Amino acid sequence: MKISLVIPIYNEEGLIDELIPRVKSALETIDPQFEIVVVDDGSADGSLQKLTAQRKADKRIKILSLSRNFGHQSAFTAGLEYANGDVVAMMDGDLQDPPELLPEMYRKLTSEGYDIISGKRTARKGNKTKNLVTGLFHFLFKRMAHLEDLENAGNFSMMNRQALNALLSMDERVRYLPGLRTFIGFRQGFVEYVREDRLQGEPKMNLSKLLVLAADAIFSFSRLPIRICLTLGLVGTVVFMLAGLYVLAAKIFGFAVLGWPSTVLSIYFLGSIQLIFLGVVGEYVYRIYKESQKRPLYFIKKIYDNEEEA
Q1: Strand pairing of 3-9 and 87-90?
Q2: I want to staple 147 with a disulfide (CB 3.0 to 4.6 A). Which of 15, 182, 203, 215 is the partner?
Q3: Which residue has the higher pLDDT, 126 or 178?
Q4: Is the pLDDT higher at 64 or at 287?
């Protein structure tokens, strides 16, 4: 079965000359007729030039150059839609996910009856704060979204064509591919590994971007935020009903405390709760708005493959 590997790239010129040879070496052990679909997500450095140089030496490398930076999940989607392999793998371009695991993924997929194989991180090297936040997100998201096979699994994965077609049939504009990949079901397995730190350069997914991605994942797969608002509203109603009864009793029996601090604090507390509720509702409304726009996830500026170059 022909295998395709999808890799999104954004300003990774310092890693490409190591990334491509390592990927090719891993895929050679699976099938010499592989294809590598590299998606240049609007890089502003020399990434595209280095990729085209690699393609001149090996036509199995195909390049999708997007018109601008559309984001990590959109770039992955572009590559997955373009890939034509019977088996399609996806991995980040920063070499934190080792391409040397691809043969083991392929073996499990084809010989053990799995439809999807995901890389499961047993540990992470690098920035401890970032790793702590990422680990906490995976722990909570697994339980909030009721997707039991998701914990510590990111984009690094491999799937057969049937599973990929199911994944691509979901056309959400706000996307979290690991969640969608788990949601579609099928028989899913794992390959465990320790996630490496970046070899060089700054991470493209910094802490703020990871938090945005986490919010997209949570609001797309869980109704817990709105349920928390409902619960807080009910609790607040009960508390202030009891407080009202206390104030009434204090007035009747003459032990009410004079002053305005309790009144002001109550107003500020209720106002803060209402703002939180509006923020949560606004997040859902924003996502509904994005889905209703139905804008394309990406635009391709140029495709480098045999047909285009001919």
Answers
A1: parallel
A2: 182
A3: 178
A4: 64
Both structure tokens of 110: 């084809």
Triad 43, 131, 108: Cα angle to 5°: 80
d(CA 5, CA 263): 62
Three-state secondary-structure class, residue 46: coil
Is the Cβ–Cβ distance between 42 and 67 less than 8 Å? yes
Report d(CA 45, CA 36) in Å as an integer. Answer: 21
Q: What is the mean pLDDT of residues 301-310?
A: 70
**Residues 100/26, Cβ–Cβ less than 8 Å:** yes
Q: Do 114 and 248 reside in the same domain of the chain? A: no
Between CA 251 and CA 254, with CA 253 as vertex, the angle to 5 degrees is 65
Q: Are strands 300-304 and 61-66 parallel, antiparallel or unpaired?
A: antiparallel
Asked if residue 146 has pLDDT above 90, the reply is no
Instruction: Name the nearest CA neighbour of 281 among 233, 217, 234, 225.
Output: 225
**Residues 286, 200 share a domain:** no
User: Among all chains, which residue has been given the structure tokens 């009434």?
Assistant: 248
CATH value at residue 184: 3.90.550.10
Task: Catalogue the E-assigned strands of 22-86.
Answer: 35-40, 61-66
Structural domain of 190: 3-221+297-309
In whole angstroms, give the CA distance from residue 13 to residue 54.
12
Helix axes 207-221, 261-293, angle to 10 degrees: 80
pTM: 0.68
Q: What percent of the chain has pLDDT over 90?
A: 20
From CA 45, how far away is CA 178, in angstroms rounded? Answer: 28
